[in-house]
Every structure is written in structure tokens, then in C-alpha cells.
């Protein structure tokens, strides 16, 4: 499930953060938004596998937005709602929701509903391990191994490292990193600096003179592919797969 991208659209900040935390701990890639305006932008940029949508949002009707999503014909939709009558549930399903969960609900039931929906997308074999020389990123287990040692990364550090490596050595601005690697909408670019520093402490031989995650003046940061390549002849980027079928859609 490590390569499944989920978008959470929920106006309640406490519930939104709680759902995001549980899903990220389970191994999903998460993007969150509190209203339809931001949700539309994230959906168009990220094209998530699953959208978790509250039927009542501060700036519009969740049912109407569900119809908008359904017309795009790409993502599955799990609707959350305090409206629990049969007519409400039928209205949600007719609007295009693939499943409907009434509030309040238990977290185990919620995670089971998400798992059942995301299984629908696991029809082909997708990359499970990214190898950059001595650095290996396991997308299924969400683990990183460098020079035969496992590196203990937080979920956010893992997401940041993944996004940096996927840029192919090109620099990314702090704004780009916030949009691509963070599940919540954050405006403080110094958040990126803090997490980059943490990554450097765990991966760099000398964090004060980083050679793997480099600073690009007036731009942001880049991942130095040459730094992690071994001296043996090998492809700069090799992609391994396993026998497990996971989502063919790449994480953001």
C-alpha cells in the first residue's frame, strides 16, 4: 500500500489530522485539505487513488463535489457523513461515492473500508524498491537502507526523501517540497529546512558538509545521485519489483 495516494477532504481539523495520521502510519501517501477550493487544486495536481470526502464542507456541498470527482472517472471516493438515514446514504452513492461511512465511526472500521477500496486498484505489479547505488527505498514497507544498514526515518522524513530522489537530481524549491511531500497545507518554508537537517544527520557522513542532499542557493534542495552510486558499474537508477501486486499509480 506504500504507493497508494489518498486525499482527505475534511473541514474538522482534529478529525482531518487524526485520519491522516492513522493512514500515514499504515503506509499510505496522504494529502489533506479543509475546503473544496484547495481540494480541487490538490486533486488536479496529485490525481489520488482514493478521495475521503466529508459530505458537508465549509465552502460548498460535498455531494456536488463528489459528482465533480465522479465525472473525472479516476479516483475512488469514500464519503464520510453525519447524515445517517437511508435517503442520505442513497444520495451519496448516487452522487458517485464508492462507499459511505456514517459518523461517528471506529478507526478500525474506517481503515478496513479504506483497505477494501484501495484493493480495487492493485491489479498490476508496480515498483516496490528503488535503488540508488547504496541507497535502497522500500515503497511497500516504507523503509530505507543505506550501505546495508536500515535508517530509522519518520513518515515525513521518508516522504521528503522519496520526493527528492524522484526529481532525478533536479533542484526543488521549498514551496515544491511542501506541496509534494507534506500531507497538510503548510506555508512555513522553514519546516522543510528542519526536516532536511534531520535527514542529513541520519544519512550524511558529515551533516555540516552534506554531499547527498545538497542546498541549491536561491532555489532549494537537490538529491545528488552521483553521491550514492557505488564504484561498480551499474545503472544510475534501477527499479526492482516484487510479486505483490500494488497500485500502478506512483505516489506524489
Tell me what you see in this structure.
The strands form four sheets. The chain has a five-stranded parallel beta sheet with strand order 2-1-3-6-7, sandwiched between helices. A five-stranded antiparallel beta sheet has the order 11-10-9-8-15, with no helix packed on it. It is an alpha/beta fold and 252 residues long. Residues 230-252 have low confidence and may be disordered. The protein has helices at 13-26, 36-46, 62-72, 86-94, 107-118, 155-166, 174-181, 190-203, 225-228; strands at 5-9, 29-33, 50-54, 56-57, 60-61, 76-81, 99-102, 127-132, 135-138, 143-146, 149-151, 172-173, 213-216, 220-223, 238-241. Helices cover 38% and strands 24% of the residues. The longest helix is centred in the first third of the chain and has 14 residues, at 13-26. The protein folds into two domains: 5-121, Response regulator (Rossmann fold), CATH 3.40.50; 127-241, Winged helix-like DNA-binding domain superfamily/Winged helix DNA-binding domain (Arc Repressor Mutant, subunit A, Orthogonal Bundle).
Average per-residue pLDDT, rounded, comes to: 82
Strand composition percent: 15-25%
CATH-assigned homologous superfamily of the largest domain: Response regulator
Helix content: 25-40%
Q: How are helices and strands ordered from N to C?
A: EHEHEEEHEHEHEEEEHEHHEEHE
Shape verdict: elongated
Q: Note the main sheet.
A: 5 strands, parallel
Tally of extended strands?
15
Query: Remind me, CATH topology of the largest domain?
Result: Rossmann fold
What's the total helix number? 9
CATH architecture identity of the largest domain: 3-Layer(aba) Sandwich
Tally of domains: 2
Task: Calculate Rg over CA atoms.
Answer: 19 Å
CATH class of the largest domain: Alpha Beta
User: Low-confidence parts lasting 5 or more residues at pLDDT below 50?
Assistant: 230-252
Task: Report, as a whole number of angstroms, the end-to-end distance.
Answer: 14 Å
Structural class designation: alpha/beta
Strand arrangement, largest sheet? Answer: 2-1-3-6-7
Amino acid at each position: 500500500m506504500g504507493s497508494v495516494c489518498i486525499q482527505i477532504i475534511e473541514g474538522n481539523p482534529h478529525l482531518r489530522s487524526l485520519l491522516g495520521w492513522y493512514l500515514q502510519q499504515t503506509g499510505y501517501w496522504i494529502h489533506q485539505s479543509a475546503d473544496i477550493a484547495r481540494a480541487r487544486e490538490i486533486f488536479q495536481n496529485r490525481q489520488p487513488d482514493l478521495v475521503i470526502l466529508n459530505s458537508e464542507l465549509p465552502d460548498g456541498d460535498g455531494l456536488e463535489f463528489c459528482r465533480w470527482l465522479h465525472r473525472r472517472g479516476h479516483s475512488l471516493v469514500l464519503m464520510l457523513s453525519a447524515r445517517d438515514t437511508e435517503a442520505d446514504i442513497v444520495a451519496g452513492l448516487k452522487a458517485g461515492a464508492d462507499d459511505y461511512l456514517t459518523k461517528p465511526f471506529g478507526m478500525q472500521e474506517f481503515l478496513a473500508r479504506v483497505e477494501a477500496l484501495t484493493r480495487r486498484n492493485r491489479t498490476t505489479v508496480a515498483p516496490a524498491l528503488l535503488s540508488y547505488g547504496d541507497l535502497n527505498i522500500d515503497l511497500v514497507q516504507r523503509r530505507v537502507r543505506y550501505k546495508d544498514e536500515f535508517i530509522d526515518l519518520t513518515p515525513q522524513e521518508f516522504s521528503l526523501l522519496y520526493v527528492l530522489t524522484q526529481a532525478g537530481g533536479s533542484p526543488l524549491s521549498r514551496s515544491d517540497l511542501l506541496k509534494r511531500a507534506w500531507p497538510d497545507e503548510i506555508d512555513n518554508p522553514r519546516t522543510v529546512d528542519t526536516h532536511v537537517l534531520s535527514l542529513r544527520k541520519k544519512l550524511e557522513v558529515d551533516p555540516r558538509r552534506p554531499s547527498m542532499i545538497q542546498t541549491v542557493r536561491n532555489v532549494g534542495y537537490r538529491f545528488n545521485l552521483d553521491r550514492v552510486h557505488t564504484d561498480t558499474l551499474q545503472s544510475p537508477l534501477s527499479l526492482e519489483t516484487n510479486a505483490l501486486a500494488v497500485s500502478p499509480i506512483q505516489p506524489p
